[in-house]
Design goal:
The structure holds 2 protein chains of 2 kinds.
Chain A lengths: L2 H29 L6 H14 L5 H23 L7 H23 L4 E2 L9 E4 L2 E4 H23 L1 H11 L1 H6 L4 H26 L2 E2 L5 H14 L4 H21 L8 H15 L16
Antiparallel strand pairs in A: 1-4, 2-3
Chain B lengths: L1 H5 L1 H17 L4 H27 L6 H16 L5 H4 L5 H5 L4 H23 L4 H21 L19 H20 L1 H11 L1 H6 L4 H27 L9 H14 L4 H23 L1 E3 L2 E3 L5 H16 L53
Antiparallel strand pairs in B: 1-2
The chains are: A mainly alpha, B mainly alpha.
């Protein structure tokens, strides 16, 4: 495989995981909540696309956005009593929600998986020289870049964005200065849901089989990326998500084929080393208050 | 009497465990099997508690020690006559090894402890979510290696024909031993130092406590107990795959600990017995059971769903867990001692900025990690 091809594939997976990472980091920023149930938003989106098979594309997209954002807001409602709970309690509460939803999907749709049949032609490849690029790869990269740009604009240039950043930086002070806590948190969940729905569109083409753990297996690497990149801040977290996706593809190519089954070991060994060297996150400057003992 | 009172936080939970084990003798055989697995699960949760509860550092990695212990004990105890045929790539030493029940449990504990010690040396420098993710990484790596390196394990195949020696006696005695070790540790000098660092890391450090060393101690001890739990588990199941000691078990045991109350032995025991108990009950109910005069048969799949609901409801209404992270108090004292503010919080927030967040609770949890 040529280097350019490899870089394009790596960028595509990186872009998807960057969006997931951003969704996780948005909610963490305003609520200090690591949402393990975030993957289930993606799963719900996939099932919605699957259930609306015969509909026009636009309606299917709208339906999945609607359902995903609604579920995201519902999660906000559930986690609301826990805003002041300890981090461990919040974390386990999100496990419980994730566990609950996964088993609900299992009960309703069964373990086998259902074909989504969404824009399958995008899986065809165009050939430029010896490069083979699937359309969906281009879509993933463009969509990822566009959404990241949009989020950068929203957070950087608008009033609500400023409020969210203020809340993420120092929640209590932001409240004193008149930032409406409930609204900011709800908005974070809406935006996170929006990103999850967008990710679903790309994934539904790439992986057309919806299973109860569809989103969970995207969430795990993204979450790791978020912590490695730097959980407290949006841009580092997003970069971390991108980095994990990018590294996965690169490692998959670099490792000799005999030891490719150990890809996860190598990847997570790198994760551990990065965490040991930069416990606050790879893309966060040294602050001097690193949590090390 | 005074001694009993002093040891009550250990004696009380132990009596509960004994009552559960004895009570199970009057139940049908299939239920007895469920209770046995509840007891073994509780061993895992107590092993997890020894590190997470005392240090306040989140760890998803303790299940890797359970896994390593389970495979060490399982491989060592499986009959040497069949191993070379079933697992041709196994190194000769392991293939020819065949040891007894107790020896294999000791081996499991030793391997678990050694593994935890080696992993802990670098990892115990981390706190908060970095520690959570790093230990999670350890779990992924452990599973990945056990599943794919066929020289040291069964790989993706099922390891079977392990003597099923974890009956009631072994499960109960094993649990009581682990609880006793946990309690002795948490009231020992090392345990108290570690708990001090959980409450206020800066104050503990300035009092001369070497937090890294204390955490490493607890992590290693937790590894020993986790490995032992793995040994009990494999002797209970008789056959095991790498996926049985992976993410699901890690999440479920952590949830049990938090639901019970993360900071106390009583919480670990209550959470594990309750959640594993409900789980076992629902598993039976799905097959159909008779309670008194009416028959209950739940549709398949309701078990895990109900479990999720129970965990969520408990956490929403009692965020500090069912026991409030307190030890069991002596029930016969005349004046009830004043309630102490809720104990400190594990898994501190990774940024100092979050610290002020929970001041409204009285005792501030998340500030302590910094």
């Amino acid at each position: 495989m040529s280097l350019v091809q490899l870089l394009i594939d790596a960028t595509a997976l990186g872009a998807v995981l960057a969006l997931v990472a951003m969704g996780i980091a948005l909610v963490f920023g305003v609520m200090r909540l690591v949402n393990f149930a975030y993957g289930e938003l993606i799963t719900v989106g996939a099932y919605t696309l699957m259930l609306t098979k015969g509909w026009p594309i636009v309606l299917r997209v709208l339906a999945s956005f609607g359902v995903v954002i609604a579920l995201s807001l519902l999660m906000e409602l559930v986690f609301r009593p826990l805003r002041r709970a300890t981090a461990a309690t919040m974390l386990v509460a999100t496990f419980a929600v994730s566990f609950l939803l996964q088993n609900m999907f299992l009960l309703i749709f069964g373990p086998q998986g259902e074909t989504i049949e969404f824009l399958a032609p995008l899986n065809r490849a165009i050939e430029i020289g010896d490069l083979r690029i699937r359309w969906i790869t281009i879509v993933a990269i463009v969509l990822g870049a566009a959404l990241l740009g949009f989020m950068a604009w929203l957070l950087g240039k608008t009033s609500v964005g400023l409020q969210m950043r203020a809340a993420a930086a120092d929640f209590d002070t932001a409240r004193i200065l008149g930032v409406r806590a409930g609204r900011v948190i709800a908005l974070a969940f809406v935006l996170a849901g929006f990103l999850a729905a967008a990710v679903t569109l790309v994934l539904a083409v790439q992986r057309p089989l919806a299973t109860p753990t569809y989103g969970f297996f995207i969430l795990v690497p993204a979450l790791v990326g978020v912590v490695v990149g730097g959980l407290g801040k949006l841009v580092p977290a997003t970069l971390g998500g991108f980095g994990i996706g990018f590294m996965t593809v690169i490692l998959g190519d670099v490792l000799p084929s005999g030891s490719r089954v150990f890809l996860n070991s190598v990847l997570f060994a790198i994760v551990i080393i990065v965490l040991l060297v930069r416990p606050d996150g790879l893309f966060i400057g040294r602050t001097g208050v690193a949590e090390r003992v | 009497m005074r001694a009993l009172r002093r040891w009550w936080p250990l004696v009380g939970p132990s009596l509960l465990v004994i009552a559960v084990a004895l009570g199970a003798q009057f139940l049908p055989l299939s239920t007895q099997l469920q209770v046995r697995s509840v007891l073994v699960t509780t061993v895992i949760v107590v092993a997890l508690y020894v590190f997470v509860g005392n240090s306040g550092v989140m760890s998803f990695g303790q299940v890797s020690f359970v896994a390593v212990g389970a495979f060490a004990a399982g491989l060592a105890a499986a009959p040497a006559a069949v191993k070379p045929n079933t697992f041709p790539k196994l190194i000769p030493f392991l293939a020819e090894l065949e040891i007894g029940n107790i020896e294999s449990l000791v081996l499991a504990a030793a391997v678990g402890g050694l593994f935890a010690f080696v992993v802990g040396i670098p990892l115990m420098r981390l706190s908060g979510l970095s520690a959570g993710i790093a230990t999670f990484a350890v779990l992924i790596i452990t599973n990945n290696v056990l599943r794919n390196w066929e020289a040291i394990g069964p790989g993706a195949k099922t390891l079977s024909l392990i003597p099923q020696t974890t009956f009631f006696i072994q499960a109960t005695v094993g649990l009581l031993i682990v609880m006793a070790v946990a309690y002795v540790y948490q009231t020992s000098r090392n345990g108290r130092r570690l708990r001090a660092s959980r409450e206020d890391a800066a104050a503990a450090q300035s009092s001369g406590i070497d937090i890294h060393r204390e955490r490493l101690w607890a992590f290693t001890l937790s590894g020993v107990l986790g490995g032992f739990a793995g040994g009990l588990l494999v002797h209970q199941l008789g056959s095991i795959t790498t996926q049985q000691v992976f993410l699901d078990l890690a999440f479920v045991t952590l949830a049990m600990l938090v639901v019970g109350g993360i900071g106390s032995l009583w919480g670990a025991v209550v959470g594990a017995l309750l959640i594993a108990g409900i789980n076992a009950f629902l598993a039976e109910a799905q097959r159909g059971i008779t309670i008194g005069s009416f028959d209950l048969e739940l549709p398949g799949g309701t078990r895990l769903l109900t479990l999720g609901v129970v965990m969520l409801v408990v956490l929403l209404f009692k965020p500090t867990g069912l026991t409030g992270s307190r030890e069991l108090t002596w029930p016969f004292s005349r004046s009830r001692s004043p309630r102490i503010a809720s104990p400190a919080e594990p898994l501190g927030s990774p940024s100092a900025k979050a610290a002020g967040r929970s001041e409204a609770d009285g005792g501030d949890p998340s500030a302590t990690e910094q």
